[in-house]
Structure formats: C-alpha cells, structure tokens
Amino acid sequence: MTNVLFILSSADPQTLAEPHPLFSDAGWDITIATPNATPPTLDLGFAGKPKRTRDQNRAYLATISEALAHPAALEDCNEEEFNLVFYPGGPGRAEDLAFDKVFGALLTRRIEAGRPTALLAAKHGVVPLRPQVLVDRNVYTGRNPASAGALAHRLITDLSRKTPPVKIFEPLPLQHGAPLPSRIAKAAMEEDLGGQEHLPNERVFRLYQTWSQGGVGLIITGNVMVDPRALTNPAAMILDRHAPLEPFRQWAAAARSGGAQVWMQISHPGRQIARGMPGIKIAPSAVPMNMGAHSKRFEIPREMTRAEIEDVIERFVTTATRAAEAGFDGVQIHAAHGYLVSQFLSPLTNLRTDEWGGDLQGRSKVLREVVARIRAAVPADFAVGVKLNSADFQRGGFDVADAAAVVQMLGTLGVDLVEVSGGSYESPAMQGQTRDQRTLDREAYFLRFAKEINEVAPMPLMVTGGITRRHTAERVLEAGIDVVGIGTALSVMPDLPNRWRIAEAMAPQMPEPRFKDKAINSLAKLVQVKYNLHRIADGKRPQPRISAVRALLIDQVHEQRNLRQYRRWLETRMH
C-alpha cells in the first residue's frame, strides 16, 4: 500500500482538490498534517482558472472536511513511514511553511535521503498557466496551480512502478496443517449465541457460513468455554467432556463451507465474571477487579489451589482434542484481555510465590503447559495458536518486553500463529483512540507493538483492531505482519474480503458511543457489534447505524433472560 503525507498550512480549491482525489482513487492512504495540528486556512475565493470549476473543487473539499478539521500534527509525523511527502502549496500567510522549522528539517531530510518529495507552486503568473512538471531524481515540482493534476498523475505512475503490491490473498504456510488460504482472518468476537444448551445451533451455523462464503482465509470462533462453571456471559458455548460433539461438527462444516480454515478459540474467564453469575470466580491470586465505580460488579476471586490449576490445564486440553475430533483445523488459546491465562501472565494479578508465579518464567508456566499438553494430544496437522496481550496498559503490568519474551518461549513449543492484542476489562485498549490520529494508527491499534514483537517472533504474527479498509490491511502486511485480523467490520459487512478482491471497499462505521463513562463506552461498542452478529445469525441484514443506547437496552433484556436460563441449566448439570 502506498501512502502520502499532505503537508498544509493553507490551501486553495485547485492545489488541494485536484491531486487529493487522484491519490485517493488510486488506493493511496492519505494523511493530512499541519504544524501543531492546526486546521489549515482554506482560501475558497483564491483566483485562477482551475481545470474543474471552483464550485466542483469547493464541493470536493467539503467531502474531506473531517480530515481537514482534524489534521495530524506535523511535528509528530515520522516522514520515513511515508512513500511520498506532498506539499500542495496555497496562498498562505507570512508564517507559512516556508518559515516552519519542522517542515524545513523534514524537507531537507527527504531530499538528502533521496525519498520521493513533491512541491506544487501556488502562485499564478510565474510561468505560463499550463501544466508543467519538473523531475530532479526523486524531487517532483509542479510549477503552477495548473500543474496539480499532472503532478499527481506523474507521481502515481512513477511510484506505482517502485511499490510492488502486497497480495493479501496469498496463502500462508504454517508449521502444522494446511496453509491458510489468505492473510485475512475473522477475529474472535463475543456472540452470545449458545442458547439454553450452550451448544452451536442453526443461528451459529448461518453466521459462520456467511463469513466463510464472504471470503476470509481463517475464521477464529468466539471464545468457547472450557469449564461450564466459569462463563464470560450466560449464553456462551461450552465444549467439555460431557458436551455432545455433533453440533460442533456441524459448526466446523458451516465455517469451512466457503474454503476458510476454522480455529476454535478456547478460554477461561478467571476473575472476569460479573457478580450475579453462578459458578466459580477463581484467579491466580485473590486480587479484586479495579474498575473504579464499576468494581462492585465483580466479586473478589478465590486464589486457585495447585490442584485447580492442574484441572484448568487439563480442561483446555480436553476442549482442544474434542475440537480436533469435531473437524476444526486448530485452536486459539485466549491468553489476552485479562482472562485467566492472561491473569497468570500479569504481575498485577499473579502474586503467587510458588512455581506458578514470581518471575516471567513462573507466571508463563500455565500458558506453556497448556500449549505443550495440547500440542502433544492433538494430531500433527492440527494448528495451535495463541492470543497474547502486547501490554495490559496498566502501570507495572505485563508489557511489550514481557510479550516478546513469551513469544520466544512459545516458539519452542510448536505454536503456529500468535495474535497480538492488548488490554483487559480494567483497561480496555481502545480507550483514548481519536479521529485525528493517523489512519494506520487508528485502524491497526496494536501494529506498533506487533512490529517490536516481530523482531524476535519465530512464528507468524496476526494483528487485529479496527481495520476496515484494504489498503490499511496491506500496510499491516507491508510492515512485516503475516495475518490481518478483522472483527467489527465483518459484523456489518460479512463479505468485505470478497469486495476487496474486486476493488477497494470500506466497511460502514457504527455510531460512536458518547458516554462520559469509559467503561460504559467500551461496553456499548461491544453490544453494537453483538447486535449485528445476531441479525446476520437470523438471516437479516446488519444495521450499522444502530445507536449505542438501543443496543445496550436490547442486550440487557437478552442478558437477563440468558442468565435465568443459565442458572437453571447449571443447577441441573451439577446435580
């Protein structure tokens, strides 16, 4: 994916509105930056004879008004990340970019390093008013505003030759099992579709068949619980030694119907179980949840005994071996987002002094034992993946250096793929994301951490988080990551990968929750996604514009009904 940094302080309709859509239509990723992130001055009355009419140019600028109102800060941009730096000129003021020290230093670095740089003169009357483009090695100059379109066309042609496309539909070989058909994965999402029996059903089959036929290469299921006494939500699916296997066989067949591989995500929530849910609340140590006013929603967990740790490990192995028997291509062990395995990894939640705690070697023992025992119990062609936090985003917690060390440990145990994620209930990783961040940062939340981990990772890595556009996915692959995980976008456009085979496409955006409480904001985003998953499961079209308030109300009704059913089911199961 080719990306361009537009540097502005001011602009007129011609010098911005002519080149911008040409780069956009070519599939380039455009970042607009200004000194101190100040919105640029737009001189809509600037003179000249643009190729388009002034009204057309003004209309186009209105379509990118959001990007112009929230530019990136020039001083925060790393010009080495951009294939091209483009200065479209503008009528400007005395303090224009010619006097900006940051811009001057950036321009000097680009030219001295021989990186493609383009400048467009904004003044009329200097040379005859016709397109004139000069090229001196990697410096491109449009000599007047009439050169705007010609300059953009020349840059697109020249840089396209120098930037070979990344093929996101190429297969990816794995250490165990068949290659993934493509580099696009459907990431795990919480579906709450287990019903009264906590088993796959017709709604689940329809949802996963839709995704498989929508063109993804790998489907990772929503988390399947290894212990019926410990669920993330009261409608979760459970695969233990007592569960009938036929519904899971049907699930695997539906998910593979379009040619995708399907891996079952297997999980234990540990202490992250809401108060009022029946069952057990256990953790490495009796550390309560720290969520401010929402802490009371969770009970203080009980510290696990050694026997309970061994029992949980064997439950993971049982679920994995039964998934293989049901026809799944692999499993993903959920060791992120503050669930039980992640709780063992974090020094904030694992205060043990025995062999299951202490230093990182001890804190990672549960994960390493789960992986090693599963690998020994499943067929050689069955894949084993891990979802791992890049960081807890809490002071003193599990950080990217810990993650890199754990990934190196996993490399000796036959792990096929590591998905890099982050955060927990206490610190949702997406809090603080803003619209004025660069596109890549906003759409691939954990890429920066994954690139650090990738330096030592012996296995392929997957990055998930907010990706909605093909060229963002390509950028992730260009950064050296092997698989692009997509979640939310597939809840509103389940055939997005097939659309990408034909042309650039972007999934619709759901309304952003506006609650002051960050925890409620995070929950609202999750239930908006869940609402649309249920619509697809019912054979209906997604509703991307569902409001957060409505989605929360609907979810609460379902939650209370499911909770009553789960209490009755568990009481019967345990007796």
UniProtKB/TrEMBL annotation:
Report domain NADH:flavin oxidoreductase/NADH oxidase N-terminal positions. Answer: 167-499
Q: Which CDD domains match?
A: OYE_like_2_FMN
Membrane-traversing stretches: none
Listed GO MF terms: FMN binding; oxidoreductase activity
Q: Does the keyword tRNA processing apply?
A: no
Origin: domain of life: Bacteria
Key words of the record: Flavoprotein, Oxidoreductase
The family database entries (PANTHER family) matched by this protein are listed as: BINDING OXIDOREDUCTASE, PUTATIVE (AFU_ORTHOLOGUE AFUA_2G08260)-RELATED
The molecule here is called 2,4-dienoyl-CoA reductase
Q: Which organism is it from?
A: Corynebacterium canis
